[in-house]
């Protein structure tokens, strides 16, 4: 087997990168992010979505700026940490990154279970379902990035085929006058709400792990940006729809505005559409979690030469154990707040720092070290 | 994974199958009692609740049963009814709730909020206020053998009658929203049959007053683009006992903010196309000029009715039309309190543009159709 063909077996194409970016950004929060951003900026929060989206495009430029200065086969966050901070500190940072990605995947997993529990089966025993879910996750992640990207494709498709058209059916129920008057909030309020919104985008840093496995690293930039743009559009549309559907007081009483909106729709043979949506949403959630788990396993392999399969099994066992420890939504919320805090620091402080460090090193004309 | 042995796959499939069947939480229709219409009443200091249950035996065969119970609170309807029923009572198909008038007078906010929190309750649930006792009205629908009789009655009247299109979500929208008060259809008994008596107006969460079915048309005109509905009004320039009926074909109402503060002033431009349904013989419409005169006469009449309706709402301190919300959408930093402090002196300027498009298919005198 030639080297090119061998590489072909593990890499993903540019269009898959679009799916990966979309899926990594849009997770369970799509069902309820509206309530979080409305607290500060009220119904002007659509500006926050645009600002946060813009921020992610800038970060994406930074990320591409960082990785393009390393040898393509070696441009992962693991190698970059080791290169910028030295082996010892780098290892600590890598472990922290893996823990962070694992926490993100777990939060998505647990929130989805909670959503099913509250909406559809309040009395159901969740062990059989989660067992099946974990087996599915093992199967997906074990297939490597190609398999995960394949599921991401279906995840994107399920979003585009179901959530988007069904939310269009809401148009007769909307009250556009809710959005007026626009610009009724101060700059500071909009910025606070943008911070909330920026936290919804956490997840796309998986690119820092997947970059060496892109088939065409240089031409994939525009696909990554397209993926981010697509998620921004999705967020924006569902935000505007929720703002026009609920009155101001009502949205604050709603845990999952998106699900709640969809529940007003009826199609022939299906009176409760949100049950269907929530079930199809499983594919999307599966893709999101597998992406996070894959990032953990792959980084573990690069950083500590651990066997990905063993890391994966440990992670899934951890899921099974922790899932029981978290009783309900009130337990998830503080963890999510913590995760969002750390994520924002990682994205908006650590990545620019990496960029600067990479840039400084380059000026000293030190060629990148090689780690395998 | 590709190389896994067949027995591993078989085990995988078995596990999946077991897990999937464990997930199914099935409820078969003839093994449960499906509560479809419910009611809340006050009985002394206790709450009386009732539900109409459809018992499904074979396809097309239904028996409907009324179950009722009394309790100290309004919140344990389902568990109390469970105790009275030999099959489990499921309320996932609850589509209609009636409140007795005295119960509604105490406020229904907590019930609305609880229903909103419950994912089993549909956003399309219909709510109504009963003149008198709701459970009596419920009992009156049993003869129809349709557990959703009251809901169908209401939805039919939204489509073809004088009720504005509303469901649970719209009521919640008004209830939680600022600058609006919600309203519900009002049901009454007319010679033993259920009928729409008009619309019950609420302030905050409590019943305030009701308007008749004729006035309901005015409200429908103001809150939506009415497609149907009819209005009985006196014939312009005629003896007061002479009346005619206009039927609305289409309508559109535009609001314009004339002044924000200190006293808000709103201009209402109501445009409507009507059909003259029932006209007294004495009304002669022979020429274009007659028609124009009739139109402007009806416009004046309707303008008077709309102004009177708004004056009544203002006097009752209720805002079903949502003037507050409208002014909010045009004002920066709008606050609910000062607006409603100034609400009693709200100025409205009503402009009506009415066109008669047709008067039945038969020729009436020399009426000209356009």
Automatic annotation (TrEMBL), chain A:
Keywords: Germination, Membrane, Transmembrane, Transmembrane helix, Transport. The keyword Transport applies. Pfam families: Spore_permease (PF03845). The chain crosses the membrane at residues 12-33, 45-67, 88-107, 119-141, 153-174, 197-214, 226-246, 275-297, 309-326, 338-360. It is found in: Membrane. Belongs to the amino acid-polyamine-organocation (APC) superfamily. Spore germination protein (SGP) (TC 2.A.3.9) family. This is GerAB/ArcD/ProY family transporter. It comes from Paenibacillus glycinis.
TrEMBL record, chain B:
It holds the Pfam family Spore_GerAC_N. Residues 1-21 form the signal peptide. Residues 26-188 form the Spore germination protein N-terminal domain. InterPro entries: GerAC_N, Spore_GerAC-like, Spore_GerAC-like_C, Spore_GerAC_C_sf. Gene3D superfamilies: Nutrient germinant receptor protein C, domain 3. It is found in: Membrane. It is a lipid-anchor. Keywords: Germination, Lipoprotein, Membrane, Palmitate, Signal. Residues 198-360 form the Spore germination GerAC-like C-terminal domain. Belongs to the GerABKC lipoprotein family. PANTHER family: SPORE GERMINATION PROTEIN B3 (PTHR35789:SF1). NCBIfam families: spore_ger_x_C. This is Ger(X)C family spore germination protein.
């Amino acid at each position: 087997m030639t080297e090119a063909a061998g590489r072909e077996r593990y890499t993903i194409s540019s269009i898959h990168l679009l799916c990966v970016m979309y899926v990594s950004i849009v997770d369970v929060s799509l069902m309820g992010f509206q309530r979080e951003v409305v607290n500060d900026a009220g119904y002007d929060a659509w500006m926050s979505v645009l600002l946060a989206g813009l921020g992610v495009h800038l970060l994406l430029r930074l990320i591409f700026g960082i990785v393009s200065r390393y040898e393509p086969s070696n441009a992962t966050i693991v190698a970059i940490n080791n290169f910028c901070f030295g082996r010892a500190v780098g290892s600590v940072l890598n472990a922290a990154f893996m823990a962070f990605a694992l926490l993100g995947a777990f939060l998505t997993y647990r929130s989805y279970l909670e959503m099913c529990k509250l909406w559809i089966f309040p009395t159901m025993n969740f062990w059989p379902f989660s067992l099946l879910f974990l087996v599915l996750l093992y199967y997906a992640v074990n297939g490597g990035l190609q398999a995960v990207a394949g599921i991401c494709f279906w995840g994107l498709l399920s979003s585009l085929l179901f959530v988007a058209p069904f939310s269009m059916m809401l148009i007769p129920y909307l009250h556009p006058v809710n959005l007026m008057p626009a610009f009724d909030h101060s700059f500071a309020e909009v910025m606070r709400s943008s911070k909330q919104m920026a936290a919804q985008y956490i997840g796309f840093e998986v690119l820092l792990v997947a970059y060496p496995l892109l088939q065409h690293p240089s031409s994939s930039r525009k696909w990554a940006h397209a993926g981010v743009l697509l998620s921004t559009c999705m967020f924006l549309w569902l935000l505007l729809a929720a703002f026009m559907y609920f009155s101001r007081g009502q949205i604050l009483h709603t845990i999952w505005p998106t699900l709640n909106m969809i529940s007003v729709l009826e199609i022939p043979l299906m009176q409760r559409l949100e049950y269907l949506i929530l079930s199809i949403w499983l594919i999307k959630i599966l893709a999101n979690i597998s992406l996070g788990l894959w990032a953990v396993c792959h980084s573990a392999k690069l950083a500590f030469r651990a066997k990905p399969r063993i890391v994966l099994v440990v992670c899934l066992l951890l899921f099974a154990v922790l899932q029981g420890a978290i009783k309900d939504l009130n337990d998830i919320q503080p963890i999510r707040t913590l995760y969002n805090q750390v994520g924002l620091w990682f994205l908006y402080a650590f990545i620019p720092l990496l960029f600067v460090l990479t840039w400084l090193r380059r000026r000293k004309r030190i060629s990148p070290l090689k780690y395998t | 994974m590709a190389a896994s042995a067949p027995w591993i796959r078989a085990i995988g499939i078995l596990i999946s199958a077991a897990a999937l069947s464990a997930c199914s939480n099935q409820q078969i229709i003839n093994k449960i009692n499906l509560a479809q219409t419910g009611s809340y009443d006050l009985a002394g200091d206790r709450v009386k609740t009732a539900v109409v249950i459809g018992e499904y035996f074979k396809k097309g065969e239904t028996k409907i049963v009324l179950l009722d119970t009394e309790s100290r609170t309004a919140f344990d309807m389902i568990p109390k009814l469970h105790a009275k029923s030999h099959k489990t009572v499921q309320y996932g198909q609850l589509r209609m709730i009636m409140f007795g008038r005295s119960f509604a007078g105490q406020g229904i906010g907590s019930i609305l909020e609880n229903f909103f929190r419950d994912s089993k309750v549909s956003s399309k649930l219909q709510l109504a206020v009963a003149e008198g006792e709701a459970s009596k009205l419920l009992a009156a629908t049993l003869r129809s053998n349709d557990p959703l009789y009251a809901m169908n009655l209401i939805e039919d009247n939204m489509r073809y009658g004088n009720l504005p299109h509303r469901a649970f979500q719209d009521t919640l929208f008004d209830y939680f929203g600022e600058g609006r008060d919600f309203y519900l259809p009002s049901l009454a008994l007319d010679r033993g049959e259920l009928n729409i008596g008009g619309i019950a107006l609420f302030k905050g969460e409590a019943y305030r007053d009701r308007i008749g079915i004729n006035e309901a048309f005015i409200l429908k005109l103001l809150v939506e683009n009415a497609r149907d509905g009819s209005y009985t009004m006196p014939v312009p320039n005629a003896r007061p006992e002479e009346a005619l009926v206009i039927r609305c074909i289409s309508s559109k109402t535009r609001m314009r903010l004339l002044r924000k503060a200190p006293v808000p002033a709103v201009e209402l431009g109501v445009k409507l196309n009507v059909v003259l349904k029932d006209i007294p013989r004495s009304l002669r419409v022979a020429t274009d000029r007659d028609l124009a005169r009739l139109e402007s006469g009806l416009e004046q009449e309707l303008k008077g009715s709309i102004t009177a309706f708004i004056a009544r709402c203002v006097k009752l301190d209720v805002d079903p039309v949502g003037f507050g919300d409208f002014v909010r959408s045009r004002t920066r930093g709008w606050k609910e309190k000062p607006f409603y402090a100034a609400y009693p002196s709200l100025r409205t300027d009503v402009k009506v543009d009415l066109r008669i498009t047709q008067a039945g298919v038969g020729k009436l005198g020399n009426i000209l159709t356009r």
